[in-house]
Write a structure and sequence with these properties.
The structure is a homodimer.
Chain A (H helix, E strand, L loop, with lengths): L6 H25 L6 H8 L3 H7 L3 H10 L2 H11 L6 H13 L7 H9 L1 H10 L4 H12 L5 H32 L9 H9 L3 H12 L5
Chain A binds a DNA duplex through helix 1 and helix 3.
Chain lengths: ~220, ~220
DNA sequence: GACAAAACTTGCGTGCACGCAAATTTGCGT
DNA sequence: ACGCAAATTTGCGTGCACGCAAGTTTTGTC
């Protein structure tokens, strides 16, 4: 669905990106995140240190990317994939909750690592901003091409902002409880938090849908 | 209203901050933004280079701060100051439009400088994120202490996101037109852009207000 | 199959953000 | 007026992001 440039080149690029992600996560888990320099990651991935910064613009980005994977694209696909007769608000909220609900433990130790270091927490939260553009496209598609393109972008940006609020809150309480009690990961509350922060946006999503839907008739 | 620490200390801090802002803007206008190093700004302000980074965490921040001033606080104050009988949505939108409507030309040449350099544009847009917390407090106050505190934060974050979208669009078209035609600053369209991006959030703001208002009765 | 253009990698140099700890300044009680 | 404690400034060292200009690999064309 997305293969603009020819094959071999893109293939190698993804391989390098993946190698960097894997190396970054492995080294961070082995030695602790503060004892890993960019040069180490590059060396472990078999590329030049300069090349690292062609793929990731900060040291933390590779580690977080290894955990989050391609969540943004999956969220957008999930929104587009919901049946057309459910409300936009419900479609968006459920799609997001689904994607952020832990599927097994793809990196439970990695999450614990992220919650520990402030820099990694910030990067993890900021990474959620990447859902904005794909989500904007998905919402625009649901609203139909008649509606204002700007509306979709505003709604997507608002949803992304709400998600970031939820993640911040989640990481904060998580970090607090792991210092007081002891190393607990209350992952169960994340879906609830997401629903809570997304709820206030429901009226805006519904209104946009109603307005777009009213276009063809009358 | 806000003088937690004793006077003289805070006074000097603000003086230093202002000196850095002024020096940064002046030098950027004189030599062009790329020919100004952090050391130059610090020297012009009479402080150590290291001290600069105690006040601003990036080189661009001081320049942008010199232009934007304390806009965040004024937005929050403007929201709080609107009469209680106008809708929340209207209060927020009008307050923001007012504050972003150019009052004379406090830095027309400075704006031209900012639109030129991508790094400064980014910093200018990101600076709008600072309205989030003050605005959150102002909205919470209008919703009354009975409402969910989270709702106010989500709405404030969404509004901030919408504002950033408007600014981005504005700077983009501005930059485009200054290369094609010649150095035009279509500042007149900013209010319209802001209303357009904020409009989709009106239903959410109204709904929150209705829900909070329904608390005391019934 | 060879060639030219485009895309990617690499090395280098520069300026920068920031942790840390010593030195300095400010606030306040006595 | 004096001195102690807290806040702030400063110098230093480290790692990092990124522009730039080669050098290298891939792609599409003749």
């Amino acid at each position: 669905m997305e293969t603009r440039p020819t094959g071999l080149r893109e293939q190698k690029k993804q391989a390098t990106r993946e190698a960097l992600r894997a190396a970054a996560l492995r080294l961070a888990l082995e030695r602790g995140p503060d004892n890993v320099r960019v040069d180490d990651i590059a060396e472990a991935a078999g590329v030049s240190p300069r090349t690292y910064n062609n793929y990731f613009s900060s040291r933390e980005q590779a580690i977080v990317a290894a955990v989050t994977g391609e969540r943004e694209a999956r969220v957008a696909a999930a929104v587009a994939g919901r049946p057309a007769d459910v409300g936009l608000a419900e479609a968006v909220i459920e799609a997001i909750v689904d994607q952020y609900t832990d599927p097994g433990q793809p990196g439970c130790d990695a999450l614990l690592l992220i919650t520990t270091r402030p820099a990694l927490r910030d990067e993890f939260v900021d990474a959620a901003a990447a859902i904005e553009h794909p989500l904007s496209d998905a919402i625009a598609q649901r609203l139909g091409h008649t509606g204002r393109h700007t509306t979709a972008r505003v709604l997507a940006a608002s949803v992304a902002a709400a998600v970031r609020l939820a993640l911040r809150e989640w990481l904060q309480t998580t970090a607090a409880s792991s210092t007081t009690s002891g190393l607990v990961l209350p992952s169960g509350s994340l879906p609830d938090l997401l629903r809570t922060t997304l709820a206030p946006l429901t009226p805006a999503l519904d209104a946009a849908e109603r307005q777009a839907g009213r276009r063809p008739p009358q």
